[in-house]
Amino acid sequence: MVKAEGEAIAAGAEAQREETGAQPPRTLLPGATIGVLGGGQLGRMMALSGSAMGYRFVALDPAKDAPCGQVTPQITAAYNDRDAARELARRSDVITYEFENVDAGVAALLTEESYVPQGSALLYTTQHRLREKAAIEAAGVPVAPYRKVGSLAELEAAAADLGLPCVLKTATGGYDGKGQAVIRRPEELAAAFRQVAPGAQVPELVLEKFITFQCEISVIAARSASGEVKSFPPAENIHVDNILHLSIVPARVPEEIQRRACELAERIVSGMKAVGLLAVEMFVTEDGELFVNELAPRPHNSGHYTMDACVTSQFEQHVRAICNLPLGDTKLLTPVVMVNVLGQHLDGAVQAACCANEEATRLGISPKLHIYGKTESKTGRKMGHINLLCKDTGDGLSWVEQTNLWRN
Fold first, then answer.
1. Per residue in 24-41, pLDDT tens?
2. How far apart are CA 268 and CA 290, in angstroms?
3. 248, 294, 349, 368: which could join 341 in a potential S-S bond, CB 3.0 to 4.6 Å?
4. Could you give phi then psi for residue 285, rounded to 5 degrees?
């Protein structure tokens, strides 16, 4: 990106931070009520973990039988319903969110009428890839070379500048591979542009240089309202059809790279003055370089391994951070492989994890099943996960392979 443009975006993000302002930290002890904007599986697991600590929860979600609402009181209303947001604020001592695409007006309203230690500035930054990349660079952390794109002509110029292959993405929205296209040859540029920007109104787009990577890793970092920072061990992530399939911990990269990845994640969470969790996804190249790919200001799928394999889970850590308690120990207690359970895997995964399994016994694996309580099972939809506690991650990977469940 042109330096002046990057500085302008960073300045805009800084202005937004100054405008929203950080709320003074408050220490909230067990017995306080945590409001959760969003009622999905992340809110559910947060509520289960925080309830064990003695906190009360209330969620806001439009679905009547949302996963979080099954285990805690729920306000059933649209996310942009301001009256419902005010009700959430009235019933809560502190408010957090379980997904980042929160309506900007509701986020600002909640910040005005309640205690939202994460604020709205973090959302403002992470909801937009250009602002996010500028903030990462401002923290002194490398990202893949990129350019802002607003037309097919600009895409062609940016591709010539960066060189192919590249990845074209929407600046806002998109997850699990949605809203993006890989471009490997010049003749694919026009089709990729139409795919990512199909309407007459072209959204802001980002073209990123495709990084040839050895593997993808992620680090879940936490920062408390008073500024304490800790990170969890890096997870090595394997995706299938752009959906996370496996997280392997310890990651199969040298310890020096693991240490550096944690340092970069902690630098970002500190530089952005984030409160709560920040998931930092990175590419590891053959030369051992690290490039940050994306951020998520919340608990993250790749951090689910912490629920059974670490002294403190990512969900407990998030509660501790937003309530300004001392952060928990992030030490890894056992090697672990987390495998996602999608709709097409659900029945078989429940059988494999809950019933007698000679292969698990032979490999010395303890499968820990987590089901999210979603009312409808669909192919490709995340319905749960299994944490495979093992002596060696190779044994966990062998168990996944030999079940034959994840081959479709």
1. 899 999 999 999 999 999
2. 14
3. 349
4. -85, 170
Residue 43 amino acid letter? G
Q: Which helix (H) or strand (E) holds 15?
A: helix 3-20
Transcribe 306-337 into DSSP letters: HHHHBSS-HHHHHHHHHTTPPPPP--B-S-EE
Topology of the domain covering 215-403: D-amino Acid Aminotransferase; Chain A, domain 1 (3.30.470)
Q: Count of alpha carbons within 13 Å of 85, Cβ hemisphere only? A: 23
> Quick check: do 145-209 and 215-403 share a fold?
no
Two structure tokens written together for 148:
């802002």
Which residues, 6+ apart, have CB-to-CB distance to 76 below 8 Å? Answer: 61, 62, 63, 64, 69
pLDDT one-digit tens code per residue, 251-301: 999 999 999 999 999 999 999 999 999 999 999 999 999 999 999 999 999
Residue 143 CA from chain centroid, whole number: 17
What are the domain boundaries of the chain?
27-116, 145-209, 215-403
pLDDT of 19 reads: 41
Mean pLDDT in the chain? 91
| Secondary structure class of 371 (helix, strand, coil) | strand
- Dihedrals φ, ψ of 214, to 5°? -80, -40
DSSP string, 229-290: EEEPPPEEEEEETTEEEEEEES-SS-HHHHHHHHHHHHHHHHHTT--EEEEEEEEE-TTS-E
Give the H or E element holding residue 131. Answer: helix 129-138
- Pairwise CA distance, residues 216 & 145, whole Å: 17
Pair of tokens at residue 374: 């979603």
Within 8 A by CB and 6+ apart from 401, the residues are: none
Domain 27-116 has what CATH class?
alpha beta
Cα(388)–Cα(370) distance, rounded to whole angstroms? Answer: 11
Task: Give 29's contacts (C-beta < 8 A, 6+ positions apart).
Answer: 323, 325
43: left (phi over 0), alpha (psi -120 to 50) or beta: alpha
